[in-house]
Write a structure and sequence with these properties.
about 170 residues, 8 helices
Length: about 170
C-alpha cells in the first residue's frame, strides 16, 4: 500500500474516532477534570523530558542536514514509543494535553512543530486539529483556566505514580 494512502487512511480513522467520541463535550466538571489530569499529567511530564533530551542532543549536532535527519529519526522513535498511549486518550484529554504543552514548555504545539519539523507539517496538524475543534496555536493563559490551575496544584503535591513508569528510559 502506498505510504500516502496509508497516512490518509489513518488520518480519517483518527478523525472519525475523535468525532464519535465527545466532540461536542461540555466544559469540564471538576471530577472529569481531575480524572483527565491524572491521565494527561504523566504524559505531559514525558513530553517535557523528551523535549529537554532533544534540545540537549541538538546542541551537539553541527550541520542543519544532520539536525533534520536526527529529528526525523527521533520522530519515528517517539511514534513507536508513545503512539499507543496517545491513542488511548479521549477528546477532552487530547485537548487538555495540547493546552498544557504550551503551559509547561512555553511554546504552542504549532510553534514546536514549525521549529523542529517544518512549517508545512505544522500547518497540516493545525488544520487536522481544527477539524475536531482543537487549536494547536492557542496560548495557555493561567487566568483563563483557574480550575485547571487549582487541580494542577493538587496534582503537583501528589503526582500519580505512573510518572516514573513513563519517564523511565
Amino acid at each position: 500500500m502506498n505510504h500516502k494512502i496509508l497516512k490518509t487512511t489513518v488520518f480519517f480513522i483518527v478523525i472519525s474516532w475523535c468525532l464519535g467520541l465527545n466532540l461536542f463535550a461540555k466544559e469540564y466538571n471538576a471530577e472529569k477534570l481531575k480524572e483527565d489530569l491524572q491521565i494527561v499529567w504523566p504524559l505531559l511530564q514525558t513530553v517535557k523530558i523528551e523535549y529537554a533530551l532533544v534540545n540537549a542532543q541538538l546542541e551537539f549536532i553541527g550541520s542543519e542536514s544532520d539536525k533534520k535527519e536526527f529529528l526525523s529519526e527521533y520522530e519515528k522513535f517517539v511514534k513507536e514509543k508513545y503512539f499507543k498511549s496517545l491513542l488511548s486518550l479521549n477528546y477532552r484529554q487530547v485537548k487538555l494535553l495540547v493546552l498544557l504543552i504550551d503551559r509547561e514548555l512555553g511554546e504552542t504545539p504549532f510553534n514546536l512543530l514549525k521549529q523542529y519539523r517544518t512549517f508545512s507539517r505544522a500547518v497540516y496538524w493545525y488544520r487536522t486539529a481544527k477539524v475536531v475543534g482543537i487549536n494547536i496555536r492557542d496560548k495557555y493563559k493561567a487566568e483563563s483556566y483557574p480550575e485547571i490551575e487549582e487541580e494542577l496544584l493538587r496534582l503537583k503535591s501528589n503526582p500519580p505514580c505512573i510518572i516514573n513508569e513513563l519517564a523511565a528510559p
